[in-house]
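Reviewer 2 asked us to include a model.

Predict the structure of this chain.
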Amino acid sequence: MTAGALACVAPALAGSPPGAAFAPVAHSALVTVEGVITSDTLVLRALRTADRQPLSGAELAVSADGRSVPTTPRPEGTWGVPLQALATKPPAKLSIVVAHDGLREVLEGQLPGSGAAPAVSQSGNAASTLIHKQIAWWILNVVVVLIGVIAVARRMS
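Predicted model (structure tokens):
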């Protein structure tokens, strides 16, 4: 079983330097995109967030600082982006469009190794803010309904 797992990982790292590890670039609830920079290419791979398995049949499109850059699918299930096409000042803002399972997700991230925190660490704050806004709306709705009920009750008496 271990040999099978190593056989799956080895092709993905074939074009990367020895000891290179994929780092998170962007993520959503369903998809995580990881990347590693080789000598002349940014290698990206898309994984399911839940079970960390590669997305089969996914398509990737990348733009850096608003400019579309070419992506080349590789046989091992990764995508290559030429670094000269990313000719931007670090930290470059990447927009990655992942089409999978009938969905199209737009993810925002930064180049791996740019020194900035990956998008993964920012998601907790966004979810917390969203939950607080939703609770505030529920409270507001309940207050409006109570005011309406009181107004109707006073008119009827």
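Residues 58 and 100 are 5 Å apart (CA to CA). The helical segments are 2-12, 123-156. We have added this to the supplementary material.
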